Automatic annotation (TrEMBL):
This is DegT/DnrJ/EryC1/StrS family aminotransferase. Gene3D superfamilies: Aspartate Aminotransferase, domain 1, Type I PLP-dependent aspartate aminotransferase-like (Major domain). Coiled coil: none annotated. Keywords: Aminotransferase, Pyridoxal phosphate, Transferase. PANTHER family: DTDP-4-AMINO-4,6-DIDEOXYGALACTOSE TRANSAMINASE, TRANSAMINASE. It comes from Roseomonas nitratireducens.
């Protein structure tokens, strides 16, 4: 394939500078302003009131869970989940090593011991066969984890039914970190459904955003009620301030909830647009030897929140970092896929099981710009930069 000339970088309308293409910027619907105006006019801007309740209803509808608590971030939702699941210092919390640090950070801060399991090559999510074997061995040792965390990755839901079956056998609760999974399905069920609790994120880079924020979801009203109590400083009923526990200031402000409601109306359209972008990347680059795309297993439909590729340097003639640098030179942000948590300095020496799959992904994987408001010219610039790296 001859090297193509790179299309010119279009100037930004405001700054006049070449427009940088971010990895996954917010894509506004046009409804946010009216929703915000409604909240401002009502005066309910704090973390209480009708917009918050409406956002929680909208998240129930989008996720299929019966109860939802809107939180100030996905990480806050995970922290509340660990608290209501009763994680204590010294407890083991098992999670895939191929994820963002926020999956386990709150548990570690609570004194839990993380143990990292490898992911399956067909989904890049927690390997259920490995989990089954590790749980059986842990049961024999008499030291089961307090919680197993299944994590959705780049819009691909984890194989939760197999994970639940493995954990149910030992009575271990499953928490689904679905921060990246909103809208994905597995065998017709929505991401996270079936887990004791699931955490979602609405931060600025997600498929829909509230400008920041998260949600904790579940079907058990008692667990969600305890999380709600903890999220608002664990105030006991009394005219004065009364606390049997220490809580958090983790509730979502209503202004963010208003943005989230507007954004959720576009969820189906955003999923279709992200999937279409992934398909266009594959059509434009799929012929290049040594360049592969994130797989989608037959049992699930991903949202393709981020389009991810694997670069095999021996066949492609350039490595992942060459591609990342070429994209940066073309004004486009890309990111290596997750560096495995067991290889992070903060987790040096943490126990783990397997890890070769996650390490192989990190050596070769790159997330491409995945915003749904990208122009055709910007897409062409990205494709040309990647094609330009290929050496026969
Ligand atoms: C897998 C995963 N878990 C947790 C989080 C934390 O979400 P938040 O940024 O809303 O705290 C994120 C995203 O940021 C994530 O990608």
């Amino acid at each position: 394939m001859p090297r193509r000339a790179q299309p010119a970088i279009a100037p930004d309308a405001v700054t006049g500078l070449p427009r940088r293409i971010p990895l996954s910027p917010p894509h506004l619907t046009g409804l946010e302003e009216t929703a915000l105006r409604g909240v401002l006019d009502s005066g309910w801007v704090a973390p209480a009131g009708p917009a918050l309740a409406a956002f929680e209803d909208a998240v129930c509808a989008a996720t299929g869970f019966r109860h939802v608590l809107a939180t100030s971030s996905g990480t806050a939702a995970l922290h509340l989940a660990y608290r209501v699941l009763g994680v204590e210092p010294g407890d083991e919390v098992w999670a895939p090593g191929f994820t963002f640090i926020a999956t386990v950070a709150p548990a570690v801060q609570m004194g839990a011991v993380p143990r990292f399991l490898d992911v399956a090559p067909d989904s890049w999510t927690l390997d259920p066969d490995l989990l089954r074997r590790e749980l059986a061995a842990a049961a024999r040792r008499g030291r089961l984890p307090k919680v197993v965390v299944a994590v959705d990755i780049y819009g691909q839901a984890s194989e939760l039914d197999a994970i639940l079956a493995a954990c149910d056998r030992h009575g271990v609760p499953v928490l689904s970190d679905s921060a990246e999974g909103l809208g994905a399905t597995i065998r017709g069920r929505r991401a996270g459904q079936g887990a004791r609790l699931a955490a979602f994120s609405f931060n600025g880079n997600k498929i829909v955003t509230a400008g920041g924020g998260g949600a904790l979801a579940g079907d058990d009203p008692i667990l969600l009620g305890r999380a709600r109590h903890l999220a608002t400083q664990a105030k006991d009923p009394a005219p004065h301030y009364q606390h049997a526990l220490t809580g958090h200031a983790y509730a979502m402000p209503s202004l963010l909830a208003a943005v989230g409601i507007a954004q959720l109306t576009a969820l189906a359209a955003r999923i279709a647009a992200r999937r279409a972008l992934f398909a266009r990347y594959r059509a434009a680059l799929g012929d290049l030897p040594g360049l592969a795309f994130m797989p989608e297993p037959a049992w699930g439909q991903a949202t393709r929140w981020l389009s991810a590729i694997l670069v095999d340097p021996a066949r492609f003639g350039a490595d992942r970092e060459d591609v990342r640098r070429a994209l940066a030179a073309a004004g486009a942000e890309s990111r290596p896929v997750w560096k495995p948590l067991p290889d992070q300095p903060v987790f040096a020496g943490a126990p783990s099981a397997g890890g070769a799959v996650a390490r192989g992904l990190f050596a070769r994987g790159l997330c491409l710009p995945s915003g749904t408001a990208m122009t055709a010219t910007e897409e062409a610039r990205i494709v040309a930069a990647i094609r330009g790296c290929h050496r026969a």
